[in-house]
Amino acid sequence: MTAFPDVKQLLAEDRADGSIYSNSDLYDMEMDRIFMHNWIWVAHRSELPEPGQFITTFVGSHPVIVSRDRQGVVHVMLNRCRHRGATVCEQKHGKAASFVCPYHGWAYGLDGALRGVPHQDGYTGQLDKSKLPLVNLRVEEYNGLIFATFDKSIMSLEDWLGRAKPWIDLFMKQGAYWPIKTMGEHKFTFPGNWKIQLENTTDAYHFPIVHKPYLDSVDKETEDTFSFLDGEGYVEDLGHGHSVMVMIPDLVDLEEDLDRPIPMRFEKLAEDLSKDHTPQEVRRIVRAVGGTGFNLNLFPNLACSMAFFRVLRPLSVNETEIRHIAIGMDGGPAIANQARLRLHEHFQGPMGFGTPDDAEAWDRVQRGSLAGRDIPILLNRGIGHEAKRENGNLYSDVSAETGMRAAYRQWFADMTEENEA
């Protein structure tokens, strides 16, 4: 019998043992205690706009189907036939009336109910279809974000998101006058532990170093906008492992101060939009194209990162899958959505100036952390001047590691099955 690691020996408020990235027993604990017992993001509402539409994805290591049934209800079901365990759907997304296992033809409805079994008389009364649906997970939605969990007893999604909800609402304003929609994604893996990526989205400290090529690739006005390390930004602990990193405070609420000058890089877009839209509409659309000025981390697997979704999935203790999902305006101007895609590709794309550099840094953390023993990973940046707001949120300057400490507090609570500190 495997003895689980003593988590209390691995984490302090200001540091973590380097083995948290490479201990396979610890990883097994994480897959159970974190990914089986928390709300895990699985889809955005726009991916399932009509009855019959579905996507396939994962909750932790478990393949699932996310479907919208004929009544419009969203279901998240294990992608596993109740007969011999084969997956019943291999398509990434699509529209279907049912899911049929290719092995023996067992057929399931969009809600997972077992509808048909070929040659059922062979069971001579020993098979009750009503007791063999696809296994349904608990599902809840907030502002278009769909989450699922194996755990029927945990708190509601709204309670789990808690103080992160106002930030989700702010993030969704980048639809301008239209709802948010997903506009495609690219997926890649890196040879490192999932927590290295979890840390990265709340780490502004690395930006001017790792992303100097990006800063060199943009105009001076944009470079100044993204040189935020000495600015008025901040990182704030939102509870339950969630955090927000505000890099550009002027772009927290995209509907405020629309009379500010349009950035030089959007002047041509504004000119083109003005042919079909009022000046006020143009300003709001252009503001939305640029995205928000903050990264919102939702523990454990979703980041609403300025203008896209970043989704992580642990594959093993030292391999992680990342999806970058572009988002745009559902029904908005085509030229505005094209502009969003070009901005997305410039930084997050496979040939962009941002993500490839990030991925190399994550790879080097994984390999470097294997050197030596009993050498901690430091998590103490900004802790000396961390303060508390009236609502109890801890916050510090934009380069602080407050967001990482927030995530690790929830990690610790889950792993020790104690309440969050």
UniProtKB/TrEMBL annotation:
CDD domains: RHO_alpha_C_AntDO-like, Rieske_RO_Alpha_N
Residue ranges annotated for the Rieske domain, each copy included: 39-148
Cofactor (UniProt): Fe cation
Record's protein name: Rieske (2Fe-2S) protein
Protein's UniProt keywords contain Cell membrane: no
Assigned keywords, A-Z: 2Fe-2S, Iron, Iron-sulfur, Metal-binding, Oxidoreductase
Keyword Chloroplast: no
PANTHER family xref list: CHOLINE MONOOXYGENASE, CHLOROPLASTIC
The species this protein was found in: Acetobacter ascendens
GO MF term (any one): 2 iron, 2 sulfur cluster binding
Gene3D superfamilies per UniProt: Naphthalene 1,2-dioxygenase Alpha Subunit, Chain A, domain 1, Rieske [2Fe-2S] iron-sulphur domain
Pfam family of the protein (one): Ring_hydroxyl_A
InterPro entries according to UniProt: Rieske_2Fe-2S, Rieske_2Fe-2S_sf, Ring_hydroxy_dOase_asu_C_dom, Rng_hydr_dOase-A
PROSITE patterns: RIESKE (PS51296)
